[in-house]
Amino acid sequence: MEQKNQNTALLVMDMQNGISGMLPGPVITALTQHISGAITYARSKNMPVIYVTVGFRPGLPEISDNNKSFAAGKDRFSQLDMEEFTKIMPALAPQQGDVEVRKRRYSAFTGSDLEVVLRAAGIQHIVLTGVSTSGVMLSTLREAADKDYQITVLADCCADGDEEVHRVLLDKVFPRQADVLKAGEWAAGIQPSAS
Fold this sequence. Notes:
Blueprint: E1 8-13, H1 17-20, H2 25-44, E2 49-54, H3 68-72, H4 74-78, H5 82-85, E3 99-103, H6 114-120, E4 125-131, H7 133-146, E5 150-159, H8 163-173, E6 179-181, H9 183-187
Parallel strand pairs: 1-2, 1-4, 2-3, 4-5, 5-6
Keywords: Hydrolase
GO molecular function: hydrolase activity
Protein name: Nicotinamidase-related amidase
């Protein structure tokens, strides 16, 4: 058995029932296939796979009226079965040994114990996948960069409801703080070209 990759972890973010339905079927199908391939590769290298979902307690005490985006959805969130909302899509289901983390905002770090989990495992490099590019991907990347993590974004393992925002983030914003690669390039060990 190969030795566990001790400094890199794959993060699968917000690939949950309550969010995946917000994207068109063909987009979520392609995204799920790419992320599934990244998960398979990570597991083949004994790399930790960490699932991050967003969810709230009954009564939504975590949602402040001052938070423009979450407060706007408060009525909708209050009607949801939060257990069903936070379930990870069956096609990407965690396996024994995978870690699941619950967050309370866009960033995978906010309101979660993700940093404790990463630190305990000696993780210094995180590989980001998930939906949406302008939500969890952007917020997690920015916070991770401020925390001095090495970051790789898998470009074909994220999507956004706004294709232009997705393109601008991948082409112009993310490369300032992360390596941006396709999942196949990452698995092949290809390094990003210098900008």
